Amino acid sequence: MASVTLRNLNKVFTDPQSKKEVHAVRDLNLEIRDGEFMVLVGPSGCGKTTSMRMVAGLEEVTSGEILIGDKLVNDVPPRDRNIAMVFQNYALYPHMSVYDNMAFGLRLRMLPGLLWQLSHPQETKEIKNEIDSRIQQAAQRLGIEALLDRKPKALSGGQRQRVALGRAIVREPQVYLMDEPLSNLDAKLRVQTRAELIKLHRDLKTTTIYVTHDQVEAMTMGQRIAVMKDGLLQQCDTPLNLYHKPANMFVAGFLGTPSMNFIPEARVVQNGAKPLIETEHFKIHLPEEHAARLSEYIGRDIVFGIRPQDIYDRSFAPPTLAEQDVIRMNVDVIEPMGAVSTLFLTTGQQTLVAEVEAETKAKEGAPLDIVFDTAKAHVFDKQTEQAIV
Fold it and tell me: Which runs of consecutive H residues, i.e. helices, occur in 30-149?
């Protein structure tokens, strides 16, 4: 196992015809700890896969440094970096059995040429036994012992993914790199495989960098998450810290389902000890502990944010919210989800999404009194989009 350090990492692609430059990764600084499961997440084109490919040695670094452990690997060939990669499309050899797919890389690394094997039969046997032992152990861990003689075409998508994982496991590398390995699986199988990957990392304790655009995968799997946008690292922290203390509006809106509600036309008003947020259609008092941070924004426009889970049907609000401001909005659409109901609420031009108790008496087309849990509200600078509260 080893840590992975990215220092001022940059990647610039140049179009050969127009000569136009595209800055895919910008000054990325990231420390992945030894044995950590780090998730790189962001929308398509944010630079997460390019960053991983530079760690793997599949993309040349424009500038900056990559260290695996204490070793600078910028100029080290991919095969000598002691990493194993799991691809989105599995990348299995169709003419080989599952066993041979898992053994192929080991044979290349561990077995010298045929002439050496013929002249060293005992050493060759020991190496082959070691390869077989690794494959059997990985197959047992992944539950694919019965599939070792099959060809990839005879496997389901989930089974192929396990084989791809097994091929990486038998390498016993310093670092695993996983590039959206679950994106080709159906929803039910994705949840199951996600849990298997978490247990696998817990057993192996090997440094893992996992790339995904799915924020649910990121939140459930990562010990820490690095959120990227337009080649820039926005924030790196634990899942709960990212959710409760986002650094900016992008992180706040990207993580969480449904995504955070933003009210852009809001203003901070002085109102005694408690800060008051005024919008076009309602007023919200925030807790006193936010007064100091909002003092310099008195009279200025801000963006107010509240998560759907922090909006309550007044009839079902916990007693601790009894003193909160009551807001009346019209119920536009109700989406029953079983355990909860998702409400689309409107007042004037403002629309909010709320996730409330399934037992709500809300009716489409009728008004509903709601309250915010303002202790969990967020305030952002309108110009910089950075978090204030």
Answer: 48-56, 98-110, 114-119, 121-142
Which tokens is 190 given? 């994705």
pTM for the full predicted model: 0.92
Longest Cα–Cα distance of the chain, Å, equals 89
312-330 per-position pLDDT tens digit: 999 999 999 988 899 999 9
In this prediction, residue 322 carries a pLDDT of: 84
384: pLDDT strictly greater than 80:
yes
CA-CA distance, 61 to 51, in Å (whole number)?
9
Percent helix, strand and coil across the chain, each rounded to 5?
35, 35, 35
Q: How far apart are CA 235 and CA 29, in angstroms?
A: 11
Q: What is the DSSP letter of 260?
A: P
Nearest to 96 by CA among 38, 167, 157, 185: 167
Single out the residue of 252, 240, 256, 254 nearest to residue 46, CA to CA: 254
Answer yes or no: are the C-beta atoms of 68 and 4 closer than 8 Å. yes
**pLDDT of 186:** 84
Q: What is the pLDDT of residues 235-283, one digit of tens each?
A: 999 999 999 999 999 999 999 999 999 999 899 997 667 899 999 989 9
Tokens of 240: 């709960």
Q: CA–CA separation, 364 vs 351, rounded Å?
A: 14
Q: What domains can be seen in the chain, in order of their start residue?
A: 4-253 (3.40.50.300), 258-265+305-381 (2.40.50.140)
